[in-house]
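[step 3/7] inverse_fold.run input=structure_tokens len=959
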């Protein structure tokens, strides 16, 4: 029991601990001289990362899991190795303090960090929990004046989540290692998110397009027309002889009309004949239907809606959005960015309403403040909506921000102000036009319009859309002022062909929206989840679309067939409900974990009975209570056929397999026990693009190892191969050749020139390549000149002086005279003439500078002239979209400039110390060196800890 506040010495020294150094720096400026503000640099204590970190007293399963499942799931916590020096520093500061304020974030994880700090530091002074959701002077001082106690329920709820995720990850991931590939991971939310992306791709693969046609007409009123009353307008054919014309929504994903529909499916011939028959038709207005239009403002941002809008409007990924938002929060510009609430405080409402009046006028201010009810079922307990901080909102221009921070602040500011403005109002109109064709058929066209008479909140903000072809809310479509019976002339009638499209792949924004709507996981962790599935190679990006890899197909296939309930959407959402019941004190953690892990209780008997009859795989998909026995599922792996779960039919007997070294296609051989023909599949090929035709093309290409013939001098076989870094030739060494140790012999190897290919390279070519570098001759001073093929192309080398050659042929053809002529020319200093860009992407929305793709020393990259971002493995120069280019630049800016290391300085100081030490006695020298080493180690540890601040919190919370 900590001492009470009254026991604290008046005017004593108070230690305030926050998570990050940046946050500490800002808060320090708001508190008086009696406060010391220090960062924990993220989590200081967590479950061990491996058996090596577990104390020796623990053995068996506890060492492997870091959780004692046999004794009420007691977690084993260890202080992170890179945080020990920081913990020591905090203890030293605490020893000189009279009171401790734990000022970590006000959510489950922040509460857990505060609890761990208290457990590790073991303070003997009063401890206060200091909470705030914005970093302003008033908010910080109010938090100091009104502390509370630690919320143990929040701590227990977070601990239960952490244990659950550890059990899930550490038990299921090894199954993936054994049956699919080493290094894979499974997670309670990441695996479900991956399944969503894979299912969407399956739908795209199964999709069959349907073709349908209709007509578009341009009709004239006969009046000159103006902006408010156009003289012409467009309308689309909707019915023929009273029968509705089929549209895309009327077809199934297999390209067939849905059953039970009474519609007319026009083909090209039918559409063109009808257009011809309507060429001289007199049309009249059959009906005009007008309805009032009203649109209310959008709720202020919460974490997920901010991520979605930043993706749509700014091209930011979820991770980049949270990185920029973190900086805005820590520097006092916005409120806490991990929140599921749309509620604004009274102070914020007053600030927003004041700016509405000031910037847009009293006509745009509603009589009463607007309130927004929370829609998130599993909402975090803390915070209000994301908004500008303070009791008076700074306009974007007043902040002095630039780049990504300015753009994101402006988005938040606009959304917040707009949320307290009046509705937009107007009218929506539908006009139907009819006429009789020359062949007697009756045709009806329809046109829709919208006019906004009062823009209301749209003056400040309009929400974006996931569909790039969607019409935004503030878009007007004006129709002429016509009445029923008015005559119209058809200026043009054209036949239009359409094809149904497969379901769109998820983007980061739409996947976040899907997870939230299904109530899977916590919205505040979605950015981490997206980062995990991208980093693990389960998903890659094609433009902004998330494309599942073939590897993810194998992983999801295994999980669906043998751990069905663990990746079931309803099951995962129900688990989230249970965890929130524990947080509210309505359920106990230990009994719940026992049921999940061991399957205890009434449902366990059913699960075990099912397992006895059908094996663990069936038990994993059993009905009944959503909590089964995880341990039993991962114990019996006999039912899992590794080859089966990694094999997918392509067609015509060709099978796609996911091997330990990547995906490949195989055509089985008819010879019993024989090996079929195989061909590697590019890692970045979208699964829905692997057709039978492409598979045949891949199989027809030369692959594997080609014997070119024996080297006439050594007798060793020379082979051509296609390697990870391109095609190359090498020699086959005898089996008894030592491959390691001092006497190891490496085979001669050489990359093919750009002008060569595997199916045309000859033995003569290979021997020439492996003979490089070629000695051209010596200069007058006797220095040898050689011609070589390097990473950046062909070149000459004389000592340390290298000169580029223009073509690869010169490597074998250049003479000594020509080489000396090249060296007689002055060496080009500085940069050579800039290469032309590989592709132009347009103007960056943040820097407003042109963005291009260039070829750099380490591969292609995008740049706006200020920021450079290397293309990822899954990006391609030919297919990269402007949105993807802008996103890469946004992520790079969010990381900030690379921090320069102090290696050179350290080296100089070390050298100076050693020089001085040599002049002293041996004993003194040893002592000096030891001290220097400790000092360097402290600096290194502190620096490493600082770098890991942001990453620490995310990784500890990964699901």
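[step 3/7] decode complete -> sequence:
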């Amino acid at each position: 029991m900590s001492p009470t506040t009254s026991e604290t010495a008046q005017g004593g020294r108070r230690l305030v601990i926050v998570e990050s150094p940046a946050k500490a720096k800002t808060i320090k400026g708001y508190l008086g001289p009696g406060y010391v503000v220090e960062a924990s640099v993220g989590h200081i204590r967590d479950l061990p990362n491996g058996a090596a970190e577990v104390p020796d007293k623990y053995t068996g399963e506890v060492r492997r899991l870091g959780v004692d499942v046999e004794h009420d799931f007691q977690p084993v916590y260890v202080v992170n190795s890179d945080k020990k020096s920081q913990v020591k520093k905090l203890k030293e500061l605490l020893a000189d303090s009279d009171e401790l304020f734990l000022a970590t974030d006000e959510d489950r994880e922040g509460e857990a960090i505060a609890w761990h700090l208290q457990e590790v530091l073991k303070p003997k002074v009063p401890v206060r929990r200091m909470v705030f959701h914005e970093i302003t002077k008033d908010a910080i001082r109010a938090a100091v004046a009104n502390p509370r106690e630690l919320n143990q329920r929040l701590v227990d709820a977070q601990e239960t989540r952490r244990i659950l995720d550890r059990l899930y990850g550490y038990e299921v991931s090894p199954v993936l290692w054994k049956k699919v590939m080493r290094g894979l991971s499974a997670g309670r939310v990441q695996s479900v998110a991956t399944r969503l992306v894979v299912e969407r791709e399956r739908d795209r693969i199964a999709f069959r397009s349907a073709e349908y046609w209709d007509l578009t007409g341009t009709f004239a009123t006969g009046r000159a027309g103006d902006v408010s009353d156009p003289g012409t307008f467009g309308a689309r054919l909707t019915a023929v002889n009273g029968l509705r014309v089929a549209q895309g929504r009327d077809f199934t994903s297999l390209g067939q009309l849905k059953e039970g529909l009474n519609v007319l499916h026009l083909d090209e011939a039918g559409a063109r004949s009808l257009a011809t028959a309507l060429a001289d038709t007199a049309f009249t207005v059959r009906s005009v239907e007008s309805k009032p239009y009203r649109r209310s403002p959008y709720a202020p941002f919460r974490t997920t809606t901010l991520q979605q809008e930043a993706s749509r409007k700014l091209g930011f990924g979820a991770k980049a959005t949270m990185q920029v938002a973190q900086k805005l929060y820590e520097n006092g510009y916005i409120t806490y960015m991990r929140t599921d609430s749309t509620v604004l405080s009274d102070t914020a409402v007053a600030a927003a309403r004041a700016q509405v009046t000031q910037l847009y006028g009293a006509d745009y201010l509603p009589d009463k403040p607007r309130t927004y009810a929370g829609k998130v079922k599993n909402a975090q307990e803390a915070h209000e909506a994301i908004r500008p901080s303070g009791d008076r909102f700074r306009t974007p221009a007043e902040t002095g921000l630039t780049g990504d921070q300015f753009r994101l602040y402006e988005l938040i500011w606009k959304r917040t102000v707009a949320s307290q403005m009046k509705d937009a109002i107007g009218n929506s109109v539908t006009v139907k036009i009819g006429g009789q064709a020359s062949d007697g058929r009756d045709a009806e066209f329809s046109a829709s319009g919208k006019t906004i008479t009062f823009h209301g909140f749209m003056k400040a903000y309009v929400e974006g859309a996931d569909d790039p072809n969607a019409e935004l809310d503030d878009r007007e479509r004006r129709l002429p002022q016509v009445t029923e019976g008015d005559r119209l002339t058809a200026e043009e009638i054209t036949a239009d062909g359409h094809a149904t499209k497969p379901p769109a792949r998820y983007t980061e924004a739409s996947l976040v929206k899907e997870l939230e709507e299904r109530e899977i996981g916590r919205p505040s962790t979605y950015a981490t989840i997206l980062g995990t599935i991208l980093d693990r190679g389960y998903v890659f990006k094609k433009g902004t679309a998330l494309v599942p890899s073939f590897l993810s197909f194998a992983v999801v296939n295994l999980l669906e067939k043998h751990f069905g309930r663990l990746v079931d959407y309803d099951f995962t959402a129900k688990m989230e409900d249970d965890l929130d019941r524990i947080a509210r004190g309505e359920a106990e953690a230990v009994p719940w974990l026992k049921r999940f892990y061991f399957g205890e209780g009434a449902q366990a008997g059913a699960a075990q009975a099912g397992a006895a009859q059908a094996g663990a795989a069936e038990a994993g998909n059993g009905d009944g209570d959503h909590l089964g026995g995880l341990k039993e599922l991962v114990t019996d792996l006999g039912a899992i056929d590794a080859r089966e779960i990694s094999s997918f039919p392509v067609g015509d007997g060709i099978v796609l397999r996911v091997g330990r070294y990547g995906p490949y296609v195989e055509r089985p051989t008819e010879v019993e026990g024989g090996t079929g023909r195989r061909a590697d599949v590019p890692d970045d090929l979208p699964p829905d693009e692997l057709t039978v035709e492409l598979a045949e093309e891949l199989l027809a290409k030369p692959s594997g190892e080609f014997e070119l013939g024996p080297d006439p001098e050594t007798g060793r076989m020379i082979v051509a191969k296609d390697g990870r870094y391109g095609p190359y030739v090498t020699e086959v060494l005898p089996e008894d050749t030592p491959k390691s140790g001092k006497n190891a012999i490496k085979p001669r190897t050489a990359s093919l020139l750009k002008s060569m290919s595997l199916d045309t390279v000859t033995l003569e070519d290979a021997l020439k390549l492996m003979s490089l570098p070629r000695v051209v001759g010596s200069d007058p001073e006797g220095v040898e000149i050689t011609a070589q093929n390097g990473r950046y192309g062909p070149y000459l080398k004389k000592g340390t002086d290298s000169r580029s050659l223009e073509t690869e042929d010169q490597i074998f053809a250049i003479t000594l005279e020509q080489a000396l002529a090249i060296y007689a020319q002055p060496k080009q200093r500085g940069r050579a003439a800039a290469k032309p860009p590989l592709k132009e992407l347009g103007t960056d929305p943040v820097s407003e500078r042109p963005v291009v793709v260039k070829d750099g020393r380490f591969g292609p990259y995008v740049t706006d002239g200020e920021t450079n971002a290397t293309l990822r493995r899954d990006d391609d120069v030919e297919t990269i979209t402007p949105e993807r280019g802008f996103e890469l630049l946004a992520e790079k800016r969010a990381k900030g400039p690379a921090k320069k290391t102090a290696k050179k300085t350290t080296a100089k100081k070390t050298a100076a110390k050693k020089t001085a030490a040599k002049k002293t006695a041996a004993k003194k020298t040893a002592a000096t060196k030891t001290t220097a080493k400790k000092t360097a180690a402290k600096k290194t540890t502190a620096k490493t800890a600082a770098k890991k601040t942001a990453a620490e919190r995310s990784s500890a919370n990964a699901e």
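[step 4/7] annotate
The CA atoms of residues 58 and 629 lie 24 Å apart.
The chain is about 35% helix and 20% strand.
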